[in-house]
Amino acid sequence: MDRQLTAWALAAAQALLFIAAAPLLAGWLQRCKCHMQNRAAPAVWQPYRDLSKLMRKRLLLAENASWLFRAVPYIVFGAMLLAAAVVPLIAVRLPTAAIADVIVLVGFFALARFFTALAGLDIGTAFGGMGASREMMVAALAEPAMLMAVFTLSMTATTTNLSVATEFILRSGLVLRPSFLFALLALAMVAVAESSRIPVDNPATHLELTMLHEAMILEYGGRHLALIEWASQVKLMIYAVLIVDFFFPWGIATEFTAAALAVGVIAVTAKLMLLSVLLVVWETVLAKMRLFRVPQFLGFALMLALLAMLTHVVLETGA
Amino acid sequence: MGIASLGLYNQAIILFASLALLTSFIMLAQARMMPLIFTFAWQGLLLATVSVLVAIVSKHPHLYISAALTFTLKVVLIPWLLYRLSVKLNMQYDAEAIAHPTLMLLGGVGLVIFGYHVAQSIVHLSGLATRNTIAVSIAIELLGMLLMCARKSAVAQVIGFMSMESGIFFAAVISTYGMPLIVELGVAFDILVAAILFGVFFFHLRDSFGSLDVGQFNRLSEANQPMPLRDAAAEPAPGEPS
Q1: How many separate helices (H) and strands (E) can be counted in chain A?
Q2: A310 interaction partners in chain B (CB closer than 8 Å)
Q3: For a designed S-S bond to A31, which of A41, A107, A167, B57 qualifies (C-beta 3.0 to 4.6 A apart)?
Q4: Can you tell me the distance from the alpha carbon of A233 to that of A81, in angstroms, rounded to the nearest whole number?
Q5: Which of A152, A174, A176, A292 has the most B C-beta neighbours within 10 Å, making it the best mutation to test the interface with B?
Q6: Contact B18 A316 (CB under 8 A)
Q7: Contacts of B206 (CB under 8 A, 6+ apart)
Q8: Chain B residues near residue A303 by CB distance under 8 angstroms
Q9: A306 to chain B: closest CA residue
Q10: Alpha carbon A185 to chain centroid distance?
Q11: Would residue B80 count as lying in a domain?
Q12: How far is CA B196 from CA A38, A180, B151, B158, B192, in A?
């Protein structure tokens, strides 16, 4: 009984840590990017300042905003909170692992995206509708690629449960699996597209012709905007942690002792910092692509995911 | 028998073989000339690495020679020749428009499945633990063919042809520990001569057609003159007040 209580407390603490650390990751990304581009860098906790400023601001709503428009930030943030709760950040075998299914995770993302698109349409401005249609186009192309990549991993681990799959990869040690390499590339491309980073979208601009995600949330302000921004930071972190869990799970805690958990925290911090440096390099060397090149980009991701599944069947199972 | 039960060298063979397959796909998707040539060189490097690894695993020292041949030809000499040519023809920054890029990639995936189906009946000839990579070698050949079919630029077609040859070489390494050395030397020489001949050919093509786009070749030389521009702007459409 006592043991179960600690496990639940740990699961809750992990989810809260996830939510609390997401702006920090965004700040670290921003700082690295500024350094990379020879600009003066803001402090790492700048996103926290931005969020708290937005939280304190007076809420302004458009005249024709319906209840949906007001509910969407909470729905989006709630979906991301639940998604963050199921992804193993510092420890596996937590009690939330029972629902930690990858398909559920993809479902949470789809839910958040659906409601954001509805909110974009709700006000009836041109930008909202345009952003919603673009976002749905990207999503429709990215989701099959993501599911394919995830299915490849679950074929190897024979489960779609995140926690169990992570543990399987941890136990099997270093095996050079080409299917994992391809799935990693596909998942990274999908993550870049889904979390609105360069080259698919540029979150730093509000240029009308190029924005995707920003166009949908243009009408939001105050604490609504803060929640949506926070949710998108959490989403980026979920993708990063997913990549880390699947492909480099070493260091994650499998038992609930203080030492193992400390190692887990340090390992995941180091891995996420490294991964964001890679993302920064990628964003610095690439330019944002035209919207009509995005299907080609995501088509390549889908091809990689299919190739991952094929190499798994052809080369890894043996004849 | 899963991949986890193989030794590290065999795992590395499988990994590099599938990376070579990936470079084939990158060549299919790559529209620019210079990266296309470099990707071809990377494929050569990966295949040379695979043959070195097979030499270590199967203890066939003559495979080192064929690896060295592959390296000098496919990584250094032919890419360098093609690079020189495209600089001389002033087309190193050219990018051709690929028709239906995503469809072509998915077609490539279909070819991989077909290669796997074909390889099913011949994998048992090989004694290697990594004999399943025969499917990969067939796929590399077929993808080279697809590159030749799908592209209009003569340089891309030559690269597709060379990539097909790489696939055949790779199949020989995997299935029968390489061909007899005399055959391999002959083929290597053929490839080199072919590369040089293609170079001469490119210059002739450009002189007589003014382009390396094979889509232009079936046009008559009179029709190749610049089309007289129809003065649509000056001529008012019927029914429109002038």
Answers
A1: 11, 0
A2: 109, 112-113, 116
A3: A41
A4: 11
A5: A176
A6: no
A7: B89, B212
A8: 25, 102, 105-106, 108-109
A9: B109
A10: 15
A11: yes
A12: 46, 40, 21, 11, 6
Whole-model pTM? 0.88
Q: What is the pLDDT of residues B106-164, one digit of tens each?
A: 999 999 999 999 888 887 776 667 778 889 999 999 999 999 998 888 888 889 999 99
pLDDT tens over chain A, length 319 residues: 688 888 888 889 999 999 999 999 999 999 999 999 898 989 999 999 999 999 999 988 888 889 999 999 999 999 999 999 989 888 888 888 888 888 999 999 999 999 999 999 998 888 888 889 999 999 999 999 999 999 998 888 888 888 888 888 888 878 888 899 999 999 999 999 988 888 888 777 777 777 788 888 888 988 999 999 999 999 999 999 999 988 998 888 888 888 888 999 999 999 999 999 999 999 888 888 888 888 889 999 999 999 999 988 888 775 4
Q: Using a CB-CB distance cutoff of 8 angstroms, which residues of chain B are in contact with residue A177? A: 3, 11, 15
- Cβ-defined contact of B15 to A176 (cutoff 8 Å): yes
**Residue B232 in domain:** no
Q: In which domain, by residue range, is B175 found?
A: 3-216
Task: Name the residue type at position B78.
Answer: I
CB spacing of B101 vs A303 below 8 angstroms: no
Q: Is residue B229 part of a domain?
A: no
Q: How many CA atoms lie within 13 A of B242 on its CB side?
A: 6
B17: contact with A, CB 8 A cutoff: yes
Q: Does B112 sit within 8 Å of A315, measured CB to CB?
A: no
- Residue ranges of chain A whose CB lies within 8 Å of a chain B CB: 172, 175-179, 181-182, 295-296, 299-300, 302-304, 306-307, 310-311, 313-319
The answer to whether residue B221 is domain-embedded is: no
With 0-12 CB in 10 A as exposed, 13-18 as middle and 19+ as buried, what is B163? buried
What are the φ and ψ backbone dihedral angles of A263, each rounded to 5 degrees? -60, -40
% helix, strand, coil for chain A, step of 5: 75, 0, 25
Within 8 A of A172 by CB-CB distance, chain B residues are 4
Closest Cβ–Cβ partner in A295, A314, A315 for B102: A295
